[in-house]
Fold:
Amino acid sequence: MPKLRRGWALVRVRLAGICNTDVEILRGYHAFRGTPGHEFVGEVVEVRGVSGPLKKKWLGRRVSGEINVSCSACGFRPVCDFCRRGLKTHCARRTVVGIVAHDGAFAEYLALPIENLHVIPDSVGDEQAVFVEPLAAACEILEQVDAEQFREAAVLGDGKLAQLIALVLRTAVPRVVMYGKHEEKLALARRGGIKTKIVRGDASDLRRVKESYGLLVEATGSPSGFALAQHMTEARGTLVLKSTFHGAAPIETWPIVVKELTVVGSRCGPFAKVIALLRSGKVDPTPLITRMFALKDAAKAIRFAQEPGVMKVLLKS
Structure:
């Protein structure tokens, strides 16, 4: 069982999602050792070192949890400059659930500070709530970029994160176009009101794709996607980078300079905003679920998650 610090909660995991970052971790990303998994919905079963009323407030509640654990939550004093500035997701001494020095959600239980937890309302089911963390990463784009100034935007990639990004952008931008190389995945996007165009996913796309956009999000998960993203972002446009992968990516920087692009790195985002979107029904991620496995079959589930055409795979405790 995970050990609890003061102000931390023990969460019994109900559902956990497998994402591409988990697969990259198994290939060596971040040299992680421990239990992976960072997308989850669970139930609070214990809280340590808090007042009676606060403990009562949390016990039995369904929750999702922010994955960056700040130095203040770990008891470090003084806190780092990032935490002092309110940028806890960039804490200099942070751990990250299932990614950096913190056991994750592919288990019966995990431990998190209560400051990281967000209550899931009764109207949001477990199969929606398990998407809160990746949807928050998608919503971070709306925090970083004034998306409503654009009449259209493009998402490069058709995988799980790209699909969620397109759904979130669609709440702020009238026309969203997804570029991908898998027709079955593009068909899934069209069900959510997203326009789609097929690409080959190789260097020939630089000659074939003629469209350009003022706002483009790169979410291919592939180093080759960055070159196409630069090509498709119009002069003085904004290019948002979402892909993380193991290893170096060869890039040319001249398009950034010549076209005077704004390049935005984008990672974790606002949980409260996502939960409000789920409650409103404006975003429904559940069509992305391909299959659910029991936790004891996690190895089989992770292998299945890497098969062609598979979208979101869930583990049920």
Notes: The CA atoms of residues 70 and 88 lie 6 Å apart. The longest strand covers residues 8-18. The mean pLDDT is 94. The longest helix spans residues 132-144.
